[in-house]
Every structure is written in structure tokens, then in C-alpha cells.
Specification:
- This protein is α/β, with parallel strands linked by helices.
- Helix content is 32%, strand content 18%.
- It contains five helices and seven strands.
- It is globular, with a radius of gyration of 15 Å.
- InterPro entries: HAD-like_sf, HAD_sf, HAD_SF_ppase_IIIC, MDP-1_euk, MDP_1_eu_arc.
């Protein structure tokens, strides 16, 4: 069975259940209970299975990346740091614009062909843009979980 050489995730409504540039307010920090909170003290959480999914993919030797078109890249990067996710992601393309630009930069930096990439996102427009350039793209309606990842890996290049 073929496996992707690069697995890329969107952030908003894919790894966490909010838009970082709209629904939470910086600065972000960890409180005394080690919970991540925003400026108002509101707890910030990712989708429940995301930490285990990222750890398993890293343990299984996958190269991981982020492609986010957020209007607030600094906030997204701070949350990645606070979630202790920096060591998971080799490629981080976090800025406004089309996802095709994000992937073009990852392709150039990695030398990995689009056909060897797997992408997860909650927005149909991004899925369609990337399918057009040859990236296997999976629509994630309610955040990443173990089942979605396992099915995507099993189906990679078999369809």
C-alpha cells in the first residue's frame, strides 16, 4: 500500500474548534492549571483526539505540515506553541491567501510531489483547489479524529 510522504492540516475547525482570528482574543497563555486561556480567561481547547493523532503520525514516521489562511498568523503560531505541537510540524505555512500558495511553498521546500501529499481541511473551496493540483484532500466536517485519519490513510492512492 502506498503512503503519503507529507500530511498537511488546516488549523481552524480542523485541529481546533474555532477561528483563531475571530473567536478567541490574545494574548494566549497557560494558567496555573496548565490550561490554555485567552485574554478573557476563556479556555482554549483543540479537538479531543488531535494530540493522539499527531503523536501517532509522528511515531509512524510521517512528515507533517500546516496550511492555514488565517488573518492572524501570530495567534495561530502562539497556540501551536502552547499546545506543544511545534515538534510535530516540519512545514508551517500560516498566512492569508489561497491554499495553493501554501502548498506550492511546501512543495518547493520539501521536493515532495503534490500526488504524494494528503490534506485535511474543513472548507470545501480549499479541498477543491488542492484536488485540482493533485493533492489528495479530505473534507473534515467536525474536526480531525482517529477514524478520519485511518480511513484517509487506508484509501490513499487506492481510489
Amino acid at each position: 500500500m502506498s503512503r503519503p510522504k507529507l500530511i498537511v492540516f488546516d488549523l481552524d475547525y480542523t485541529l481546533w474548534p474555532f477561528w483563531v482570528d475571530t473567536h478567541v482574543t490574545g494574548p494566549f497563555r497557560k494558567n496555573k492549571n496548565n490550561s490554555i486561556v485567552d485574554a478573557s480567561g476563556k479556555k482554549i481547547k483543540c479537538y479531543p483526539e488531535v494530540p493522539d493523532v499527531l503523536q501517532k503520525l509522528k511515531n509512524d514516521g510521517y512528515i507533517l505540515g500546516i496550511a492555514s489562511r488565517t488573518e492572524w498568523p501570530e495567534g495561530a503560531k502562539k497556540l501551536i506553541q502552547l499546545f506543544d505541537w511545534e515538534n510535530y510540524f516540519i512545514y508551517k505555512e500560516i498566512y492569508p491567501g489561497r491554499k495553493t500558495t501554501h502548498f506550492e511553498r511546501m512543495h518547493k521546500a520539501s521536493g515532495i510531489d503534490y500526488s504524494e501529499m494528503l490534506f485535511f481541511d474543513d472548507e470545501q473551496r480549499n479541498i477543491l483547489d488542492l484536488k485540482r493540483v493533485g493533492v489528495t484532500s479530505i473534507l473534515v466536517p467536525d474536526g480531525v479524529n482517529k477514524q478520519i485519519i485511518e480511513e484517509a490513510l487506508q484509501n490513499f492512492k487506492t481510489s
